[in-house]
Amino acid sequence: MKKTTVALLFGGKSGEHEVSLRSAASILKALDRKKYEVIPVGITKEGQWRSDPKFLEAAFPEILQSGSPVLLPAEPTENHLLQIHSKDKKISNKARIDVVFPALHGTFGEDGTIQGLLDMANIPYVGAGVLGSAVGMDKDVMKRLLQQAGLPIVPFVVLLDYQWRREQARIIQEIESRCGYPCFVKPANLGSSVGISKVRNRRELNPSIQLAAEYDRKIIVEQGVEGREIECSVLGNDEPQASL
Question: Which one of 179, 199, 224, 243 has the lowest number of neighbouring Cβ atoms within 10 Å?
Fold first, then answer.
């Protein structure tokens, strides 16, 4: 039986780079090598694509600078991962891809950008499409859509980093009026709890917003809620199935 060739993408430019490496390690362990031919593609923090068979051997994938530079063209008739010769930049090898498994986290991975590239290249991939990925990544947009659909959400305030520098007094008043304390300060476009702070009083607001601004120019502040966190997975296209 012919194996399905899977390109596993991991690493990336976001603040969740290390989280992505751990996800890739778990996926590598779970993939049945009798059914799937895996091509590991590591993306450095600078956005460079690298591939090396050694990535398959590591329990914790590392993106090595010694890996071969690779390129995924958006040309829909290609469906190939192109290996670029490091010295003369010529294409030295082609590997046909059947499907891409993005194990990327955060921006440039879960926000619809890589999904758009794969759609243009006409390569099937695991996970949500461009719109679902983009909406799911931006907490501000997602909360507004949920609110419009009539779902209950906690009070929140959205601000941009430059607004905080110019209008701190007004924003503090708005946060205290809408959210109160404790509240949570988050980068709007990031996950895995990176850049998130629990704020218990006014004194803690500024350092928490400064931390979130290191990861995103858009920041969201939410009212604190004592509750149970429940995760629900959904799988499928025309007839999706939920885990709960």
Answer: 243
